[in-house]
């Protein structure tokens, strides 16, 4: 299993900023130091070409992020202060997701130690999301005829409004989001399947609803490739989640999704999305559960 990662995924933020930027390097180090993956599994991306960015984003916004020519309102909406390092990390992460999709098609399963920035819209960023890496990857892979039909499984606690809006009129891209009903974003464009959960939803109910929803998705749609946006913010202790998953419940979620997909022999691209646990270490360990599950689940088709 190959993994997209670059040291450039980490950009400087002001002291005390709520976004855990160092989780990207922290997760890389955790996976290597705990021998979950070898260094040889890491594939470092270059920065995505602007032509590929423009398959989703307007030229004004896409290039404006690069040059810093954004309004103060746009930067506030993005939630991250602009810097050249942020622009670089955003382009690196998008290419990392494109590469992850390609590697999943070749190997059966692959991961990006970033990505899943599902709030970004064509003409602006929001919710700590600068570019929409998943949307760009899907556009590029479909235009290049690598795939025709793509499924997004989005389990981040916040609805994937960017993906829902971008693919609203594309029947060959199916968007599925299971999220906190009363959580951000407060205006939720309709996905192909939205499952909004009440505050404090715990393991048993969450996993039951997820299982039923996956059954429905696969009854309705047969994809060539799946992007899994595995946000860890449904955890009970998450700063912004408002749901009540335990660590064990989160681990069962990862196994459920990965086993369901690999048993169907569909290539799977693993992405991080959000997560705001009380400490950086807990955030890293929670994200690592997906990669541990992916390594442990052995499917002969992919070997």
TrEMBL record:
Q: Per the UniProt record, which residue ranges are transmembrane?
A: none
Recall the GO molecular function terms of this protein's record.
histone deacetylase activity; hydrolase activity
Under CDD domains, the record lists: HDAC_classIV
Presence of the UniProt keyword Transmembrane in the record? no
| Pfam families linked | Hist_deacetyl (PF00850)
Offer one example of a GO biological process linked to this entry: epigenetic regulation of gene expression
- All copies of the Histone deacetylase domain together span 17-287
Highest rank taxon of the organism: Bacteria
What keywords sit in the KW lines? Hydrolase
Task: Say if the entry is tagged with keyword Hydrolase.
Answer: yes
Similarity section: Belongs to the histone deacetylase family.
Identify this protein by name.
Answer: Histone deacetylase domain-containing protein
